[in-house]
Every structure is written in structure tokens, then in C-alpha cells.
Amino acid sequence: MIYLIAVFIFALAFSARWNWWRKKTEGVAILMYHKTGDPPAGSKLKKLWVSPKKFDAQMAYLKNKGYEVITFKDIAEGRVMDGAKKVVITFDDGYRNNYTEAFPVLQKYGFKAVFYVVSSTIGKKNLWHDADMEQPLEMLTTGDIKEMSAAGMEIGGHTVSHKNLSRLDDA
User: Fold this and answer.
1) Alpha-helix residue ranges (DSSP H) falling in the chain
2) Is 149 helix (H, G, I), strand (E, B) or coil?
């Protein structure tokens, strides 16, 4: 019995020492947005929209709470401050309203973001939504993308045509 108590105390002490010495790592929160602005009347995709007022309030919250807004490139290149609360802000699909509504707010707070663009729709309209759900929207232009990239925004690929990759044939 004394042997079991000794083993238990040793295990407890080792565990406490391990927790004290091991490097603490904090996770990175990832915020994903799609469309910024007010949804068009009759849209059945309202959950994919964030109003300019709400987006600004969310960015103000991050700023006021001391979040470090980073990109995936920052993580890959090791340019992330230890101990800071970290967040990556992402936008899917490459809607032009991300440029007209979100980009100025990001600049206002000195934040970076990652914009995932559907390459075949640059300067066009999205055609993947059924018109009964929502009318096609303007997509980012080459000029928008260049300006955002020059301002420190990260641009990534979100497929060529927005196909649902999980539904493609294995061939």
C-alpha cells in the first residue's frame, strides 16, 4: 500500500513539474467571412452576410481586446508574437463587397486578412448560386486584388470555378 502511495505522489509531482516547464502554446482563432454589406432583398443566403456596422464592431472588439491579427504566411514564416492573442481573418470566394466594405475597415484598424479568390470569376459575377437563392454578385477585379495585396493583404486560391471538391469523381 505504501508503495502505491509513493508511486501516486511521484506521478503527481512529475505531472506538476511537466506542466510548469513545458512551453505553453496558444491556439490561433480563425474568423471566416463571405459577404460584407447588406444582403439583397429576398436573399436566402443571409447567413453568409455580415453588415458593415457589425463587421466594424467585430474589428473594434479585436483591437480593443489586444488581438494580434496575422496571416497564414506570418505563421509559416515564424513572425508571430509569443503570448499574444492571435486571430486570422479570412474571406471566402472573392466578392467585390469585401473590397468595398471590409477592406477599408481592415485598414482603419491596421489589420491584415486573407482573401480566397475563385480565379475564373475575377472581374465577373459569381455563377455558383441558384438565382432563386440570390442573384449573382460582382467579384473582385484584378485591380482590387493588386491594391489589397500591396496593402499587406494575403491572397489565396479558392479553386478555379468553385466546384464542390467533395462531390468530384476520384478520377
Assistant:
1) 2-21, 52-64, 72-76, 96-97, 103-109, 142-150
2) helix
pLDDT in tens, 117-126: 998 888 999 7
Instruction: Output the pTM of the full model.
Output: 0.77
Task: Give dist(CA 40, CA 21) in Å, integer.
Answer: 54
Three cell numbers at 34?
Answer: 463571405
User: Which one, of 147, 144, 92, 86, lies nearest residue 118 by Cα?
Assistant: 92
State pLDDT tens for residues 57-68: 999 999 999 999
Amino acid at 161: S
Q: Give the CATH superfamily of 26-167.
A: Glycoside hydrolase/deacetylase (3.20.20.370)
In angstroms, what CA-CA distances link 7 with 13, 77, 79? 10, 44, 43
**Domain residue ranges in the chain:** 26-167
